[in-house]
Every structure is written in structure tokens, then in C-alpha cells.
Amino acid sequence: MVSAVNNSIPTEGGNSTNGKTLDACTIVIFGASGDLTARKLIPAIYHLFKEKQMPSAFRVVGFARREKTDASWRQELRTALDQFSRTKPVDDKVWAAFAENLFYCQGDLTDDAAYKKLETQLTEFGSGPLRENLLFYLAISPSQFGEVVEQIHRCGLLNKEGAAWQRIVVEKPFGHDLASAHALNQELTRYAHESQVFRIDHYLGKETVQNILMFRFSNSIFEKLWNRNSVDYVQITVSEKIGVGERGGYYEEAGALRDMVQNHMLQVLSLIAMEPPVSLEAEAVRDEKVKLLKSIRALTPEDVAKQIVRGQYFAGAVDGQLRPGYRQETKVKADSNVETFVALKLFIDNWRWSGVPFYLRTGKNLPMSASEVRIQFRPTPNVLFAAKCGNTIEANALTLRLQPNEGISLRFNGKVPGTTLGARPVRMHFSYDSEFGAYTPEAYERLLLEAIAGDATLFIRRDEVETAWQIVDSIRAGWEGKSLTNREFYSAGTWGPIAADDLLAQSGHTWHEPQVIK
Ligand code: BG6
Predict the structure, then answer these.
(1) How many domains does the chain have?
(2) Average per-residue pLDDT in the chain?
(3) Which of 56, 201, 347, 489 is 20 to 30 A from 413 (CA-CA)?
């Protein structure tokens, strides 16, 4: 696994984790009244505390504009935790002890005095690590990053040098194209070193995504096959049953390409396809990921027309329930051309993968919510059983199920018992739950812990985010000024537009439905 944090065996006292020191520190959340804080961040910190994985001393300070007291903020968070905690019911005793560490600081992000107030509040925690070791979580709009970073630097809370540490955690979207991502990077690194910036992609916090490297580089039998000699094609599906719901306004600016491909899907692709890193150190792993992203063949507008399919859902039924079309969603333009589905055929021009297509697809309002990677191996020669049994002989496939039913399956052919020569594909399954129990930490738990420990392996480096935008920008350039055509619409509840099937059919390939393991 990339990260060495051991979640199943909490460390005594909770101040070190698998060799990584967890210093006492304060987490300052900008955007403390927001959805992310209540849904993800506080539940994650609560669980880490419950499992004795937080540093032995810590504080959380929520910074936001609304008037609140410590007590009212705590009450609000408790109500949210009752809803969003991954373990229910919330343990009252644990919560009471946890809540004592939560503080609220009311202030406007544009007001100098508010940062002074924050500084005073932190100083009240003493002159030691709770005042000096600071993790700033920017759960705010990227347009406000620059201001906040400058202000916290100005009042002495963020320093590039010193014995203590200060780090900045930022959420996606990290820009909307290469130029804006570059500008954001400039802003963030004006007052902080790149090593102090932790860009989140919550997919990297998922157990199964982290397991990709463990699986690849600790099992010799698979790694030997992991190349153009054995692999016919690779398919990565991240399908979602949900539509855009209340997020129409955001989605109009984003679309599936920026929302899912630029980050989550290219991250999964790079872990699947990268070369072995020289060590598990953050820079070594990230060097290989960047190298891989840079090897993705550049796309001209002509390539985009041939290799990238976009789609938008119209009204249809998902699980028997009628869903409105995208253009009828709240805050969406009636003639919007924004894509809610995208399918890509990419090539990686390096020694290992030359000529192997990588198919990626993601979309909203699809028939199921599932993320998986399928490695499709080359078929056997058409002699012996393949010649005799015809198309019942399938090529082998290895599927990494990222969610749900997390696990790995290998598909191969078996003889159907009997006197005739019949073949049938069968599967060998590994399931996380049955092997390790149902304990799966939320992605944010892992990521927060890594940020506190100062390990950037699971965070996106500056050149990584910029390279990913370069790929996405080239696709957007191919779509520029082109309205969606009829072939690019799909009914909610189906697997995307027909054009996505045609994309694979050109090479004699087909999309495989994600596996449902009962
Ligand atoms: C987010 C996207 O980053 O990831 C959402 O903005 C998407 O549109 C979500 O629904 C998917 O995450 P998960 O963990 O549910 O697969």
C-alpha cells in the first residue's frame, strides 16, 4: 500500500502511526459552516479520535462568517454527525471528550482583524505545538485561496521556515484549466513551499485505490503480465446512479471531464499504469505518476473527434424512478451542452503500454454506482479449445473492484463437467469484507491523518495537477464551439450514448458492466 498508516491497530496514545510521528497540532478549517465540514471532515476527525489515532493533543478551530459560539457550533456538528457518522449511534462519551477540542472563530475571509482574532485564539492554546503546528484546511472557493494564504502568512501563522510545521490542505476543483491551476499554484506557493501544500483527491484515500500499488508490486505473478505483451486493453469505469441533483450550478461550470476525469480517473489510471517507484517515499511515487501522465499521447482536435465521446442525459428511469433530463435540472441552461458522461480511448506511449488502448468512462444517471478497473488479457490462439468451443472461450480478465463490493476477481475458463467438450468462464473472487471484516475507513480519515503526519504520497503534486489539466484542456479544445449532436444524448438509466459503444466496437472491443458480487 502506498501509505503505511495502519488503521486496524490503533497506536498507544495515538501520537505515532507506523513509524510516522503525529505531532500535537491544531487543524484550522476555513469554510467551517460548509457542507464538507459537517459531512466529511468532522466525522473523519471524530472517528480518528475514537480509534485513538489522533495526536495525543489536538484542537480543531472552525473559521467562518456566521455568528456562532463554540457551544452552538459543537451542537450543530453533533447533529450532523448523527446523520453522517459511518458508525451509529454516535458514542455520547466519546463525543463529549472529542467536542472539548472544537472551537469556533467567527470572521470574514476578507477582514484583516478576523485573522488577528484567529491568531489570538490560537495563542490561547499556549506557546507550544498547538499554536505552532498548524494544518489549514481550505474548504472554501479557490478564488479565496490567495487571500487566505497571504493573510495567515502576514499574521505569522504560516511560515516557510522554522522548527514547527504549517501545512495547507486544498480541495478540488483545483482550477478549471491549466492556466487557472497554474495561477493557483503560484498563489499558494508564494507563502508556502510546495512541500507544505496538500492537494486532496479523495479517491486516493480509498482503501481499494491504495491497494492498487500493493497488488501490483507485491505479487510477482501479476506484474509479469502487466504490459503490452499480455494485456489487450484496460477499462476503467466510474459510474454513478445519481444525477447532478442540487449541484446544477457547479456542474454547468465543470461537466464530467473536469469533475471526474481530470482528477479521480486520471489518478486511478496513473496508479494502474505507472512504473514501479524506486521507494514508497512521496516524491518517488509521485515522480512515476507524473511520468505516466506525461506519456499519455497528446490529442489533436481530430483525435478528440475519434477518441473521446461525450454525452448528456435526457429524462429516463433509474431504478424505476423517473429522473429529469440534465437540461431540466435546477440552475442548468435549457440549451446546455455540458457533458454528464464521457468515454475516452487513450494511449500511453511508453515501452510498457505502446499500442494498448485504455478506455475510461464515467457518467451520471447510469444504471449502477460502481467503480472498477478491468485488465483484459489477450485471447489464446484460435486453436485447440478456442477453435473447438468457439465464443464460449473468453479471454482472461482481472477486475479490481474499487467500490462497492471492494475486491479483486480473476476470470478464466473452466470445463463444464460432462462427456461433451463445453467451456464456461468462471471467476475467483477476493472480497475485502470477507477477508478483513467490514472495517473500511472513510477516505478523509486516511487523508487527514497523512496530512498531519506530513506524508504527501496520497496528495497531488503541482506538476501532476498541471499535467492532468493539459490533457483535459486538449479535449476541451476539440469540443470548442461544437453543440451536442443527437448521437450524444442518452436516456437516464442507460450506459451512455451509443457513440460510446461504437468507440470500442471500432477495435472489436466492448464495455463490460461492472461486476455485482452477491
Ligand atoms: C466528486 C465529484 O469529486 O466525486 C462528484 O464532484 C462525484 O460529482 C464524487 O459524485 C464521486 O465520489 P465517490 O466517492 O462517491 O465515488
Answers:
(1) 2
(2) 93
(3) 347
Alpha helices in 257-397 (DSSP H): 266-273, 282-295, 301-307, 384-389
Is 379 a domain residue? Answer: no
The predicted model scores a pTM of 0.93
Q: Is 224 exposed, middle or buried (0-12, 13-18, 19+ CB in 10 A)?
A: exposed
- Which residue has a Cα nearest atom 14 of ligand 1? 203
Helices (H) and strands (E) in the chain, counts: 19, 19
Q: Among residues 140, 129, 203, which one has the least CA distance to residue 169?
A: 140
Instruction: Tell me the C-alpha distance between 413 and 179, whole Å.
Output: 50
188 and 221, same domain (yes or no): no
Q: How confident is the model at residue 17 (pLDDT cuts 50, 70, 90)?
A: low
Q: What pLDDT digit, counting tens, does each position of 411-429 carry?
A: 999 999 998 888 899 999 9
CA 460 remoteness from chain centre: 10
Atom of ligand 1 nearest to the CA of 247: 8
Can you tell me the distance from the alpha carbon of 483 to that of 487, in angstroms, rounded to the nearest whole number?
11
Please tell me the distance between residue 323's alpha carbon and the centre of ligand 1 in angstroms: 19
Q: How far is it, in rounded angstroms, from Cα 461 to Cα 442?
A: 22
- In the β-sheet with 58-64, what is the strand arrangement from edge to edge? 102-106, 58-64, 25-30, 134-138, 166-170, 197-199
* The C-alpha cell that represents 338 in the structure block: 455540458
Q: Please count the other Cβ atoms lying within 10 Å of the Cβ belonging to residue 290.
A: 21
Who's near 354: CB < 8 A, 6+ residues apart? 228, 347, 348
Ligand 1 contact, 259 CB (< 6 A): yes
Selecting among 47, 193, 264, 512, the annotated active-site residue is 264
CATH number, domain containing residue 102: 3.40.50.720
Vertex 458 angle, CA 455 and 461, to 5°: 90
User: Which of 207, 209, 240 to probe ligand 1 with, by most ligand atoms within 8 A of CB?
Assistant: 240
Q: Which domain holds residue 141?
A: 15-200
Burial of residue 460 (number of CB atoms within 10 Å: 0-12, 13-18, 19+): buried
Is 264 a known active-site residue? yes
pLDDT score for 228: 98
Q: β-pairing, 321-323 with 102-106?
A: unpaired
Whether the CB-CB separation of 374 and 249 falls below 8 Å is answered with no
Same domain for 294 and 222: yes
Give yes or no for a contact between 205 and 234, defined as CB atoms under 8 angstroms apart: no
- Give tens-digit pLDDT for 65-99: 999 999 999 999 999 999 999 988 999 999 999 99
Q: Does residue 419 sit within a domain?
A: no
| Distance spanning both ends of the chain, measured CA to CA | 27
302 has pLDDT over 70 = yes
Decide if 341 contacts 500 (C-beta within 8 A): yes
